[in-house]
Write a structure and sequence with these properties.
By secondary structure, this protein is of the alpha/beta class. Helices cover 31% and strands 24% of the residues. The strands form 5 sheets. Strands 1, 2, 3, 4, 5, 6 and 16 form a 7-stranded mixed sheet that branches. Strand 4 and strand 5 form a beta hairpin. Helix 3 packs antiparallel against helix 4. The protein is globular, with a radius of gyration of 24 Å. The protein starts with a strand and ends with a helix. The mean pLDDT is 97.
Length: 467
């Protein structure tokens, strides 16, 4: 076939979901992929990075509880960690994912896709036509900043760091975001001597205490943190060693260099110029994921720059797949806020977990962001170590919780938790923010005792009991 109702470019987790939901909606769909089916998350991001972190997390958890601590008699088996990571990526074999695509009734086309006209996609020598829509779900690449010598030094991005088959003795990490913090944690725990340079603090999009607590933890692990500094030059010598010169005049020599300074859209060779768009740009959309200025091109996931997270991309994908099918079949479109065909949560309720030690889990707005939006903000903080369930979980528990309340509506607009396994607390906060549950009603959501979820009761106590 060369004619489909919908052609989806990019068979990562997000593209798979667009294709799946549109197919379930009654459309004939082609899914085009030039690399591995399953995409970045499956092979070079979410899954392998968390697999690299998990063994140390479990080991640290055991060491933090007396009685279990005495049973820990060996060291981390690094090769076993790498082997387990390999199993999560199926050793970078995508046959299982390709089989799923076929089983879902979606046609898989292998090769590089280029948009060559309105509703027209060329793969190799074959021109494919979409009767209704094309969805660009091409993701993003690591940004390589303009630093003299950087490209010639052949630095790692997240791809090399999450797929490495051995651990270097030393690693320089450039960046202060989620990828930098997580991989610095993983590699230090796996035996590398890690230096991290960031031009400001860590995890800048979060509440300030989150980055500060993660920075303290990285120092405790032995990471050499160089905050408020940035590279000015990078050189790799004939022996393979990398010398990074920093803005404070110091130099760091390591076996490898990881760059984690942001992302750029993978649109440079997509053919956007043929339909009046600019190659290399992010594709901005409305809330139904339709690219601005078009009535046939959709952009879903990282490429639209709304929220560069796999789970948020899959959320967008479900909305996009359903609305594309609805429009193609002449069915009603529900594009009102929180309707079935829109990605409203991208604006108000994006959840994210950073799997450092401690974890950082957040949803919605920070206090600063809420104030910037003109809200009447009340901030409530609580030391999570004071919760009974925390002392049961760890003898050395350290954590912090914050909720951000819009006083004019008496609803939560943001929440942040930092501590061991706080990711388990996040979905309750996400539900509260999305549903705009009144503070007075939250008092009747009783947390189980003795669990860490009791922090909700303590936060509400600190906020003030309704009269």
């Amino acid at each position: 076939m060369t004619t489909y109702d919908l052609i989806v470019i990019g068979a990562g987790a997000v593209g798979e979901n667009v294709a799946d939901y549109a197919t379930r909606g009654g459309l004939k769909v082609a899914l085009v992929e030039s690399d591995l089916v399953g995409g970045e998350c499956s092979y070079w991001a979410c899954m392998p990075s968390k697999a690299l972190l998990m063994s140390s997390t479990v080991l640290d958890g055991a060491k933090a509880v007396d009685g279990a601590r005495q049973a820990v008699t060996g060291e981390l088996d690094v090769q076993a960690v790498l082997n387990r990571r390999n199993s999560f990526t199926s050793n970078w074999d995508d046959q299982g994912q390709a089989d799923w695509v076929a089983g879902a009734g979606i046609d898989l086309i292998r090769g590089h896709a280029t948009i060559t006209g309105v509703r027209e996609v060329t793969v190799g020598d074959t021109v494919y036509t979409a009767t209704h829509a094309v969805a660009a779900v091409v993701g993003s690449d690591a940004l390589l900043p303009d630093i003299p010598g950087l490209i010639d030094s052949k630095p790692w991005s997240n791809k090399e760091a999450t797929s490495a088959q051995s651990i270097p003795s030393s690693l320089m990490v450039i960046g202060g975001g989620v990828v930098a913090a997580e991989l610095a944690t993983a590699y230090q725990q796996l035996g590398a001597k890690v230096t991290l340079a960031a031009r400001s603090g860590l995890l800048g999009g979060n509440e300030p205490f989150a980055g500060e607590m993660v920075a303290d933890s990285l120092r405790d692990l032995g990471v050499d943190l160089r905050l408020n500094t940035s590279p000015t030059r990078v050189d790799r010598d004939e022996h393979g060693l990398v010398t990074t010169t920093l803005s404070d005049g110091t130099t760091v020599v390591t076996d490898e260099l990881l760059v984690a300074t942001g992302r750029v859209p993978r649109t440079q060779s997509l053919g956007l110029e043929t339909v009046g768009l600019t190659p290399g740009d992010w594709l901005h959309t409305d809330d139904t994921l339709l690219v601005e200025g078009t009535d046939w091109l959709y952009a879903v996931g990282d490429v639209n720059h709304r929220a560069l997270l796999t789970h948020q991309g899959k959320y967008q994908a479900r909305a996009a797949g359903v609305v594309i099918a609805a429009r193609a079949l002449g069915k009603p479109v529900h594009a009102e806020p929180w309707g079935a065909h829109v990605a409203t949560a991208d604006h108000a309720a994006v959840p994210q977990v950073t799997f450092t030690s401690p974890e950082v889990a957040s949803v919605g707005l920070t206090a600063a962001q809420a104030e910037q939006q003109g809200m009447d903000v009340k901030v409530v903080d609580y030391d999570m170590a004071q919760v009974a369930g925390s002392s049961l979980k760890s003898d050395t528990y350290k954590g912090q919780a914050r909720i951000v309340v819009d006083e004019s509506r008496k609803v939560l607009v943001g929440a942040t938790f930092v501590g061991p396994e706080v990711s388990d607390l996040l979905h309750a906060a996400t539900v509260a923010v999305v549903a705009e549950v009144p503070i007075d009603r939250l008092w009747h959501a009783v947390p189980s005792y003795p669990t860490v979820t009791e922090v909700w009761l303590r936060l509400l106590d600190a906020y003030g009991r309704p009269e």
